[in-house]
Amino acid sequence: MGEPLYSPEYVEGAHSVIRSQLLPRLRRGGDELAADDVAPLLSAVKGHQMAKAALEAAVLDADLRAAGVSMASRLGGVRSRVAAGVSVGISASIEELLETVAGHVESGYLRIKLKVEPGWDLEPVQAVREHFGSGLALQVDANGAYTLADAPHLSKLDAFGLLLVEQPLRDDDISGHAALARKMSTPICLDESITSVAIALDAIERGACAVVNIKAGRVGGYLEAKALHDACFERGVPVWCGGMLETGIGRAANVALASLPGFTLPGDTSASDRYFRRDITEPFVLVSGHLAVPDGPGLGVTPDLQAIDEVTTFKEEIIWQTI
Ligand code: MG
After folding, report:
1. What's the confidence (pLDDT) of residue 322?
2. What is the pLDDT of residues 118-153, one digit of tens each?
3. How far is the CA of 191 from the centre of ligand 1 (A)?
């Protein structure tokens, strides 16, 4: 994103760290550089998971295109289409929210996620539940907006039959989430807190979450995301695929990831037209609430160079010389 408001990373910062810190280290991989080498080569640099994930995804795509293998089969996907959900932001009014949700339900989305925050939680959730009935798959995401002192208030969400409540407390408050989980029956899902497999396993073992939102960028790449999926799958912890407003390039990778067997809940893998008039690949379209998993080599989508050119604001060419 343009500003570091979801995580410490943002576009300009990622650009800078890729150029000055990550690419020079990646060059040490030489001409035989493969996707599995990327994380070890970059491990000396602390954090910057999204910037690292961008590089690993590029190398992985190149590897797979050369080998004629799809991203989904490389990661171990088992489905040809994935169930799609949609995330709805804070609205100006309940009426506007109901109208937005109605549009998404009509489009065929199989799960609705409502963003919540103090002052916009019980009332909108109740309104959506009452208007659309108990059959609507519904969950909420607080992006860390509450504290453990809000537990009695958050527990009132239990009345609405939610699939889960996502990241109610701050990202660094694992013990707070464990304490909250003991006070409410709605399953707790962690998003921002999960920056690696090790942290996820710690959170699961401490009872801080019963569901994990997997975002490849947040954990440093699609290979770590697959490892995180595998670890959760082994322990019977359901996962779903989060989103960061991806273009068709990132969406192709997310849809491939979401085709793994442990992704048993619909993800934030919305169709292209949810965010873009024109995507920079062939658009992802919703068919009966699902997106098709690309089966071509690599990401399986083709960057639309003309569309990219039209929205390009800055260009930098880096000559690849291995050392
Ligand atoms: Mg979230």
Report:
1. 65
2. 999 999 999 999 999 999 999 999 999 999 999 999
3. 5
Assess whether pLDDT exceeds 90 at residue 241: yes
| Per-residue pLDDT reduced to its tens digit, 243-261 | 988 999 999 999 999 999 9
pTM given for the model? 0.95
Q: Which of 214, 224, 264, 273 is nearest to 244 (CA)?
A: 214
Q: What is the pLDDT of residue 232?
A: 98
State the CB neighbour count (10 A cutoff) for residue 301: 23
Between the CA of 141 and the centroid of ligand 1 the distance, in Å, is 6
Catalytic residue annotation: 115, 215
1 CA from centroid of ligand 1 (Å)? 14
Q: Is residue 68 a contact partner of residue 297, using CB atoms and an 8 Å limit?
A: yes
Is 268:241 a contact under the CB 8 Å cutoff? Answer: yes
Q: What topology is assigned to 73-292 in CATH?
A: TIM Barrel (3.20.20)
